[in-house]
């Protein structure tokens, strides 16, 4: 069996082991499986069997055999992942759809599984999903414990929203305040660090779901609500009295957001990274969903990206040479995705960190930011 799958198989085996006897002896003979009152052995759960099967055949083969990509995301965060007439849409959801387009040829072949912030780690660790794209901050401990993360697809930072009537102008004026925050997140830890740093004595009121925390703030249970700046603007956009709430200018943390995949399958990890690069470079080369080339353009970089000349490793990854054509026709380039979901919230790229790198070759695109990827070649 391929070496790159050993880590992943070990995780799957750990899940299966939950159905075995808790105690074990020092004998080399494995303990028998638990039995029902009738004496019949208990079968492994369908979920555990699916995880084991995925480890055996590899994630790419499993996704194609299944006919759909399973993505852990959200359905209640405006901009990133929400329901629109019953359909899951949003910035993060489109990242999942882009991967589906690359490996299955159809962006619609995605099963979105909404997970709470406290469920993200266990869901990715278990291997029951193919990827996680849910405003998840990439940290060293999460890369160690949860899975492998692709490049940053949105640069964010934590802030606060408060009532305008309170007259606050900065986060350090929140001394003694009660702040609503989502439990089990980097946001909760950052809030405590910020309070300790400036000796503010902030009381954190925690909630498992972010939308519930927002409602608690709106109902007066807290003096402020804290999350990433993008989330503050996203939730504020749905307030009927949004002009009565202001986002304070302070940024108290670094929050690089990007999709993650389960540990143990390097090919799948490389595929997801490559798809994120396709989205970024398509904008850098000025190619939109309406202008995807089907014949050589004379620009070697563009022709290589879209499989018209040369290669950037598509075949080695198990992808079609023209996978980038499927991706961009389905979801558009980075700028199109951003304009579709984030710009309506008032989040402007120009002059911000989510603009393309300063020397990006496009003529009409926001540049001077940090959005960048390894070259596709």
Q: Which helices and strands occur, and which strands form pairs?
A:
Blueprint: H1 6-16, H2 46-57, H3 59-66, E1 69-73, E2 76-77, E3 81-84, E4 87-89, H4 91-104, E5 110-114, H5 120-126, E6 131-132, H6 140-145, E7 147-149, E8 154-156, E9 158-163, E10 178-182, H7 186-197, E11 203-207, H8 210-218, E12 224-228, H9 229-236, E13 245-247, E14 255-257, E15 260-262, H10 266-284, H11 300-305, H12 314-317, H13 323-331, H14 334-341
Description:
By secondary structure, the protein is an alpha/beta fold. The chain folds into three domains: about 55 residues, no CATH class; about 220 residues, D-Maltodextrin-Binding Protein, domain 2; about 90 residues, D-Maltodextrin-Binding Protein, domain 2 (3-Layer(aba) Sandwich). Helix content is about 35%, strand content about 15%. α4 packs antiparallel against α13. The radius of gyration is 23 Å and the shape is globular.
